[in-house]
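Fig. S4 source data, part A: sequence.
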Amino acid sequence: MKPSLQTITIHALAPPKPALGAACNGCGICCAAEPCPVSLALLWPHNTPCRALIWSDAKQRYWCGMVSQPSRFIRWLPQNLDAFASRLFKRWIAADTACDVAVEFSE
């Protein structure tokens, strides 16, 4: 079977994708290529890149908005529950742990 091809757009200053299993560096490729379980459950429409994918000019990396600012993306979530939701979502998607995106690149 022929592998599927997908084009994603990543910020020019984003760090390169780490090796599979290496520490997350905020390259954003995972969220640009496919919605995570949190996004699929709570964000609509299910587009790529994920609409909660946030670029940080200061840190020169991507962040998950569902982890850093959940109430910004889930309008019905009170801001005082951001810390709780953030911990829950971070654990649910194993954010900032290891790279779990197995992709091949072509230029």
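Fig. S4 source data, part B ends here. Strands lie at 53-56, 61-64.
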